[in-house]
Specification:
568 residues; alpha/beta; Rossmann fold; TIM Barrel; 3 domains; 9-stranded mixed beta sheet; 5-stranded parallel beta sheet; 16% strand; binds iron/sulfur cluster
């Protein structure tokens, strides 16, 4: 998220009441951000009124503008077509002053009858989505979330149109999914799925590596135009991480292409095997828009040689983490290598090995002792979701919304496995070169049971991580307890007792015996019952609401015990 960040909330009475509630939440969750919130919500206004007072906002230079009109438009007879035109005009005006614009959909209402009102509201919400698609904006889809959270839409309403306390929560939840998230990460297989690499690591994810051919398709200009057309003014973070990105013939064309757009950033994962002099002189590097992850491969280089490259980049202001794959033969040498990097305060991000070694499949085949050893150097999410591969199928994820994968022919999907020819989950969202890409407007249910990338894991809403800013690996590790301090890098789990059954259950370690099974059971039950008790209370409430007489009696009884809340 931008920091400092001035946010203008521009809309009607609903905006007016939601703004202070959301501001409180945002401030408590992002205390490090210098926030300046402007509540520009005016009761009773339509989009037409909003347009008329746009001049009054002249002089404001917000980083973000959240627009919330529509409820009064349909009630006061502004047609959906005119509403769409007005909205588009507002968006253009705010974009002209460089703001990141977010639209909110209209919450359900019951004025004039729930069915009639909501079929009209749906039309206006379609207009909002049409504007979002046209200008490539992200939206806080309050309406869709509302319908998922409340079986009875009235539950979130104070009167016929305005939200109550529960309705505020839905608004805040929907806004929290977009307002503090500036980046759209584009994991771009810019040089092909069978990307070129100069190493021959036996544990390579791409078993057919190394490939010597370039697979860059088209020209940098074509890609630039395609990305602009697909994402508009979104802040794009291009992530090049397949094969060795720096040896592709078009690499520096791509770096220049990204550097030319002030709102674009570049991230790469590299084995640092090539000279870096040219890279540190590029525009993205000079302007602090370049982040690098260094993947260390002990069979191809020495720690000392790798360290030289790390120190060179540090000298040029680029701090990079060392990514270390725990291939079984490396377990013995790991601590020795680790000490070399740790001595110079480089963060080591440990990855589990996934694949076959000596006829066994990993990570399942690590012994318990090996897993415990690896986990000591890992942040929390790496242990749970990568080392112990917690099942994430069906979990809500920002993939497709704030994160996409683009292959070398322009196909866009929402998880890094989609382009494998044999996968059954080809979650294609269109093609940027063919100009038919449609970005997800709300979180999707994740289709695969595991995730091996830090972005993929951080995208899970359940995890509650903030967006990965700057260096994605370091941002991810920090949120899971591994970060730089004045005295070196702090590894949260160095002394965690992974033999403790309670801890093992929490980190998703496979149970070793009855005691472990018991704690796994407790952990799963806890999650189940947490959901079940909420479901139970909702069912009782629903039943009571259907019998008005019963509702009145219960209210009276509660009034005796809690006079302030339920008393007459
Ligand atoms: S450096 Fe990376 S891409 Fe290249 S062979 Fe090794 S693991 Fe594969």
């Amino acid at each position: 998220m931008e920091n400092p960040c001035k946010i203008v909330f521009f809309g009607d009475s609903i905006t007016k009441v939601i703004t202070p509630v959301f501001e409180e939440k945002l401030r408590s969750e992002y205390p490090e951000v210098a926030l300046d919130i402007v509540n520009a919500g005016v009761s009773g206004e339509t989009s037409k009124d909003g347009l008329a007072r746009l001049d009054a906002l002249a002089g404001q230079t917000p980083q973000v503008v959240v627009i919330g009109f529509g409820m009064n438009d349909w009630r006061k007879g502004v047609s959906a077509k005119e509403f769409e035109k007005n909205l588009l005009k507002m968006v253009e005006e705010f974009e002209n002053i460089g703001a990141r614009v977010i639209l909110t959909t209209i919450n359900p209402a019951i004025e004039g009858g729930a069915k009639a009102a909501n079929s009209i509201i749906d039309k206006y919400n379609s207009a909002i989505k049409a504007v979002a698609r046209c200008r490539k904006l992200k939206i806080a889809d309050v309406n869709s979330l509302w319908k998922k959270e409340f079986r009875n839409i009235r539950k979130g309403l104070r009167d016929k149109i305005h939200p109550n306390r529960k309705g505020y929560e839905v608004f805040c939840k929907a806004l929290m999914r977009v307002v503090p998230r500036r980046n759209t990460v584009v994991l771009w297989q810019y040089n092909g799925r069978e990307a070129k690499c100069n190493y021959k690591c036996p544990y390579c994810y791409y078993s057919w590596a190394p490939k010597q051919t370039d697979y860059f398709f088209g020209t940098a200009q074509q890609w630039h135009d395609a990305f602009k057309n697909a994402f508009g003014r979104q802040h794009l973070v291009f992530y090049l991480a397949f094969g060795e990105p720096m040896i592709g013939a078009a690499f520096y064309d791509v770096v220049e292409m990204i550097g030319a757009e002030p709102d674009w950033e570049l991230r790469i994962t590299s084995n640092l095997s090539v000279p870096l002099d040219r890279l540190v002189e590029t525009k993205v590097a000079k302007e602090g828009r370049l982040n690098i992850n260094g993947s260390f491969h002990p069979l191809a280089t020495s720690p000392e040689k790798f360290l030289e490259q790390l120190l060179f980049l540090r000298k040029h202001g680029i701090e990079i983490p060392v990514v270390y794959v725990m291939y079984p033969p490396f377990l013995e040498r790991f601590e020795k290598d680790f000490k070399i990097f740790d001595k110079h305060n480089f963060l080591v991000h440990v990855r589990r090995f996934r694949g076959d070694y000596k006829g066994k499949f990993y990570p399942e085949s690590y012994t318990d002792e090996e897993k415990r050893f690896i986990a000591r150097y890992c942040d929390d999410a790496t242990i749970k979701y990568m080392l112990n591969e917690q099942d994430i199928r069906g979990e809500l994820s920002y993939s497709g919304m704030h994160f996409v994968v683009v292959d070398c022919t322009g196909n866009v999907g929402y998880d890094s496995d989609i382009f494998r020819p044999y996968t059954k989950y080809r979650c294609i969202l269109g093609n940027v070169l063919q100009e038919n890409f449609i970005q997800c407007l709300e979180p999707i249910e994740y289709p695969e049971h595991r995730e091996g990338t830090v972005d993929g894991v951080a995208n899970l809403l359940k995890l509650g991580y903030h967006e990965l800013e700057g260096n994605n690996v370091m941002s991810f590790a920090r949120q899971g307890g591994v970060y730089h301090t004045e005295n070196g890098v702090h590894y949260k789990n160095l002394n965690t007792d992974f033999t403790d059954s309670r801890v093992r259950a929490e980190y998703n370690f496979p149970p070793r015996g009855l005691k472990d099974e018991f704690f796994v059971f407790l952990q799963k039950r806890r999650e189940y019952w947490r959901g079940a008790s909420k479901r139970g209370v909702n069912t009782i409430k629903r039943l009571i609401s259907k019998v008005p007489f019963l509702k009145m009696i219960i209210k009276k009884i509660l009034g005796i015990f809690f006079p302030k809340r339920f008393g007459l």
